[in-house]
Write a structure and sequence with these properties.
alpha+beta, 7 strands, 2 domains, OB fold (Dihydrolipoamide Acetyltransferase, E2P), 35% helix, 3 helices, five-stranded mixed beta barrel
């Protein structure tokens, strides 16, 4: 027969084990739903995970939108003014999706370098762009200026 003190220790141990299990399940759910943001320059340098979803952001390159015969497939190019990434998306695009405007696409890049998007988000007004995309565009523009300007 167990003493009351031992029963208390067993109940505390079981409680701590359940709390630990719950914390592990919550952290695992957060990690599996986490999506990282990358720029076309980072994709070009190979800094993105393969066979894993991520977000890519930049501007839709002028003259790059090509619609498929099925009416749903769209091919376009995302640029950060330094590098470009071809994108394929099958679905309905947001109303604000246009050439020369900001866009964030979620999906994965294949071995051929084509980014297959599962979701496309367009910025909602002229003043808004995700902070990561704005910083990436500014950085890419500064790098391209230093490469182009003669000394």
């Amino acid at each position: 027969m167990l003493k009351a003190r031992h029963k208390r220790f067993i109940l505390i141990g079981i409680g701590l084990a359940l709390i630990g299990l719950a914390a592990m399940l919550i952290l695992n759910a957060f990690q599996s739903n986490m999506v990282f943001f990358y720029t076309p320059s980072q994709v070009a340098k190979g800094e993105v995970p393969h066979n894993t979803g991520f977000r890519i952001g930049g501007l839709v390159e002028m003259g790059s939108i090509k619609r498929g015969d099925d009416g749903l497939t769209v091919h376009f190019v995302i640029t950060d003014t330094a590098h470009t990434v071809p994108v394929e998306y099958k679905g309905v695009l947001p109303d604000l999706f246009k050439e020369g405007k900001g866009v964030v696409a979620q999906g994965s890049v294949g071995a051929d370098g084509l980014f297959v998007a599962s979701e496309v988000l367009a910025k909602h007004d002229e003043n808004y762009m995700p902070p990561e995309a704005a910083a990436a565009l500014k950085s890419a523009q500064e790098q391209s200026k230093t490469l182009v300007m003669p000394k």
